[in-house]
Structures are given as C-alpha cells and as structure tokens.
Amino acid sequence: MSVKISDSWKKILENEFKSDYFTEIIRKTKEEYSNFICYPQGKNIFKAFDECPFKELKVVIIGQDPYHGEKQANGLCFSVNRDIENPPSLNNIFKELNENLTDSERKDSDLSDWSNQGVLLLNSILTVRRKFPGSHKHIGWEKFTDNVINLVSKEKKNLVFMLWGNYAKNKEKYIFDNDHLILKSGHPSPLSANKGFWFGNKHFLKCNNFLKNKGLKTIKWN
User: Can you give the pLDDT at residue 104?
Assistant: First the structure.
C-alpha cells in the first residue's frame, strides 16, 4: 500500500506502513471520509510530516486530535489557517510565547513556519469527524503515532518533547532515553491555563536554550 507522505519519512516509517494495523487504519479512514464530513482535508492528514523533514527534526509537540470545527484543522496540531479565528488554546500558546520572547509578538495562526524549522506538530489522532471531538479514537491512529514517537526518540538525539496536559504527558512512556529534553506542563486550554497550569512554563525559552547548548540552530518561534 502506498502512503502519500514526505520521502524523508518513508524509510523511517516503512514497517508501519506495511503493517496490518496500518492497513486497517487507512480502510477505516477512507470509510469515514466517504460517509461523513471529516477533517483535515485528505491531502493534509500527514501534513505534520510533510512540512517537517526528518533530518531537520528538533522538537516534537503532541496534540490530541484535530479541531472539529469547519475549516479549522489544517493537519498541524494547535494550528489553524490564517483566515480562521484563533482557538482559545492557540491564543494562550501565543501569550506564553510572547512572554518568553519579548523581541516580537506572534500573531500568525498558521504554524507551518515552525514545521519548516524542524518542529513536528503531531496530533495523536490524525483525523476527526466534524463536530465530534475524539470520534476517530477507535480507528487506530494512536498506535501509529505512539510508534512514531518511539521511533524518532530512538533514531534522533537531543530532541525536545513538549508535553502539554495529561493526555500528552502519558506519551512520555514511548520516549526512548536518548539525551532528549522532556518539558511538561498543563494544557494551554482556558480551563487549565486559568488555573495556573500553563502560563509561566517558559517552554519556548527552555527549548531554545537546550538547542543552543547542544550546538543546534534554535527555533524562530515569533
């Protein structure tokens, strides 16, 4: 079975794509997209990989599943296209970011520029049915993305993993100890952020300090 994904990832994920469980994921996903309105667009299901070449990978940010509102999901976790109003979580991400790095203010809601610099914006579940968050949890995407987390943590050294909220924190068990930096905090959603579990985590600053200390190019977040 041929999967349309960036060539830089094909060799790394070759065994996953050949597996029976992944064949079943594709079958179920095609069935959902045929019978319901689902997000993101089919061409953007693997956008997190397509825009972040494996050789450039430095940072992994883990989301849960895509936004389920109309035209929101663009294939990158927490990101929306420029013509879409920022979701509350993204606004809180920008507030923390702009506190970390005061030289400029981030306003662009499309996070593709982060991807292009080596930030894998990975939702654990890559698709969703419109207006039904978590509706594709049964499809099997989590097994695939858990394996991705494990594979990249073994293949790479000195990655930064940003785990925001309990769901993402539970993914720590898939991270192989390979001199990585694991940053954990509450989720940027208003429910968590307003209780003091998000603001002040300084993850963007800590990430760049780590990369700089390892002799790696830092991320231009703003």
Answer: 74
How many CA atoms, within 13 angstroms, populate the side-chain half-sphere of residue 218? 14
> Which residue reads 């936004």 in tokens?
67
For the segment(s) 7-213, the CATH number from 3.40.50.300, 3.30.1160.10, 3.40.50.410, 3.40.470.10 is 3.40.470.10
Asked if 20 is an active-site residue, the reply is no
- The domain segmentation of the chain, as residue ranges, is 7-213
Cα–Cα nearest to 153, from 128, 175, 131: 175
> Which single residue is written with the structure tokens 């990369």?
211
Among 7, 20, 50, 65, the one annotated catalytic: 65
Length of the chain in terms of residues written: 222
Amino acid at position 22, single letter: F
| Cβ atoms 64, 170 nearer than 8 A | no
Q: Are 61 and 121 spatial neighbours (Cβ–Cβ below 8 Å)?
A: yes
> For residues 14 and 52, what is the distance between their CA atoms, to the nearest angstrom?
17
What does the pLDDT look like over 154-210, one tens digit per residue?
999 999 999 999 999 999 999 999 999 999 999 999 989 888 899 999 999 999 999
